[in-house]
Amino acid sequence: MTAPPKNAVFHMIGNGHIDPVWLWNWQEGYQEIKATYRSALDRLTEHPDFIFTASSAGHYAWILDNEPEMFEEIRARVAEGRWALVGGWWVQPDCNIPSGEAFVRQGLYGQRFFQAHFGRTADTGYNPDSFGHAGTLPQILLGSGLKRYTFMRPGPHEQALPSRLFWWQGPDGSRVLTFRIPYEYCTWGKDLEAHIRKCTTELSGTVNELMCFYGVGNHGGGPTTENLASIARLKADPDLPELRLSDPRQYFNAVQHTDVPVWSSELLYHAVGCYAAHSGVKRWNRAAELALVRAEKLAALATALTGITYPHDDLARAWKRVLFNQFHDILAGTSIESAYEDARNEYGEALATAQHVANAALQRISWRVTVPHREGSKPYVVFNPHPWPARVAIEHETGGVPTDFTIVDERDQPVPAQRIQSEATVTGWRKRLLWTADLPPFGYRTYTILPEAAPQTPPVDASDTHLENSNFRLDIDPQTGGIASLLDKRTGAEVFRDTAAVGQVMRDPSDTWSHSLLRYDDLAGRFADSTSVLLEHGPVRSTIRTTSRYGRSTLTQDFMLYADQPHIEVRVRVDWHEQQRVLKLHFPAHLHFPQATFEVPYGVTTRPTNGNEEPGQRWIDLSGVYRPSGVIRGLSLINDAKYSYHALDADLGLTVLRSPVIAHHDPYEPVEGSDYRYLDQGEQAFTYWLYPHDGTWRDAGTPREAAVLTERPVVIPETYHDGAFAPAASFMQVEPANAQVTVFKRAEDNHGYVLRLVETHGHPVQAQVNLPGLDRQIQTGLGAFEIKTLLIPDGGGAAQLLNLTELEVLGEA
């Protein structure tokens, strides 16, 4: 065996990686955390030079609540420097699927817990077991006080990197010193000699100090007495590096001046199946993230306008429920079936909290809106959560509306409206109404239903297979139930080169993670045998419903063409009964030299159009040369529940679902004829928009369109009363379009309001935020893809720049 380089050092990192949920439920994980921490404390007593490393503030919170005496022991070990706090996040989450704001909250709640209970924060990000890492994380890590990062997946066979130790640089220029763990983050054997000798193969001339992780993990356990005895024995072996009991902070301090390369990209690909596995948890996650952000905005506005108490504790508890269920084996869809009953309940708690907070805030405001009395009328106050004007379709269930009705705004101007199918099957007293609302930026408008006939001509030409307005002409393929043709009449461009929105079924014999796969391209068949019917036809929209079939499954798509919207809305319902198959929707764009752009957490990224399965947030865009004319055009696909996409040349694909055996992990081979449960059986629903556009996604403003689909207005039924507020008002405006306000809330220390801005196009800009509700105007520079957090102090004073945890003031805005 070759001797290690001179002065080589292995920093031996004693840890006990704990999955609080995976092949067990959280209650078992709860107990295992207690047992692992008890074992670590005992080892610390027995071995004076031993150091234990542990992450995840949520785990410590369980100990604090359930075993406060043990927590005090841990505090004492942290204070003496032998219990290393790492991670700084609530849990070790999936690092592709959460939103940018959810990653911020992982750090906000994690680091504030550490600061409050240990008097210090972590400086090393720590996600050894997460299945890939978004390229935008360096800025979020750095803004949360985490200057270093440790991970293991993807491994060298999945992602070639220039070095085990490197600077990881985000799109905004932020850098964190990053280390990829060699081979494994936990050990199963009692003697560590084989593991240590294997790690010596990773030493190089430029990096001669490495971290070598040890300790029983996954189901917890931590370092054993035998582990420590073998380290003590191997220290005397001259063929091995110096073995130093250490922690990640000591390691990074030792190598921080080493000349190492820079990596400026994502860390992919490991387990691409996790982007789509378990549609339920994916949908709950996105809904809860967005609902909490919206609830905070509305609660902050109600606090500023009416003095109502801001519900800090309720919102923090709800966020922590969401953050816990973003743990990588939950949100990735890889846990046992019963674990998702728990996840559903906890996401439900967060969603219910968001609903209660938003309703209380808006009812507080709408009660103070002047609503004049009109005999037989029904008034509604509609709130726009976005700081830009939005023209949106409003659907609302109501009672006591006559067959003939008119909806007017606060200026008494009629707006397009129609009746649609009610959720209630009763005598007709309950009706569902649809109308077009022009909403002011981060404000509201009052709409009133009047018992008067309103003659309106549908501006959409419609039949069972054809929809057409002044913007688009859409024709349905009667065989597949997809789109035979979509003509953009504004430019004369045919959007698709072949039938689109067809359900394609791919064979998928892989495990739940899809280990060793990069794409799903083994076609088993297509949905066909379609029927189509004109479902709605009115002045706001017309809808064709198509139902197609494959095997024992059905795919229902409602294609909606609005009179005055720049997109086609498609509401999808899938009743799925196939096994070891993937369902995709394909959109073959009429483009040449396309570029695929994906929304990722607080940013965007471009990727090759090679057909690989890719993680994304709410949208993917293909922009390129429109073949007939040679001009730049594009197509954005926006959705409210999915995270998995592909682009193959000019073919854009949305992965709707996968149905592997639940919690199946290679190398185990399922036995034919055995009784297994499969993912995503039964019915599910989601919505997507097709958004054809001139130019690129930046020209089209795709980020704002995605926000409008996924963060909907709120409708409050009202009554007649005088009030301090006008029938329509706006309380925040932001310009230009690439400056997006993602958060408006009370500060964690309740001494002002926090505003978070993100630059969405990759172009530096001077952002202007007008806040009539606070009587403030703010102008601040934003760099390309920069995240900036501002504190607007109570009682006046200049806005201050905060870090993402709100623990540090960085200067004036």
TrEMBL record:
Top-level taxonomic group: Bacteria
Chain segments annotated as coiled-coil in the UniProt record: none
The record's annotation in CDD domains points to: GH38N_AMII_ER_cytosolic (cd10789)
Swiss-Prot/TrEMBL keywords: Glycosidase, Hydrolase, Metal-binding
Record SUPFAM superfamilies: Families 57/38 glycoside transferase middle domain, Galactose mutarotase-like, Glycoside hydrolase/deacetylase
InterPro entries the record matches: Gal_mutarotase_sf_dom, Glyco_hydro/deAcase_b/a-brl, Glyco_hydro_38_C, Glyco_hydro_38_cen, Glyco_hydro_38_cen_sf, Glyco_hydro_38_N, Glyco_hydro_38_N_sf, Glyco_hydro_57/38_cen_sf
Q: Where is the Glycoside hydrolase family 38 central domain?
A: 268-347
Pfam family example for this protein?
Glyco_hydro_38C
Q: Which family does it belong to?
A: Belongs to the glycosyl hydrolase 38 family.
Task: Name the chain's protein.
Answer: Alpha-mannosidase
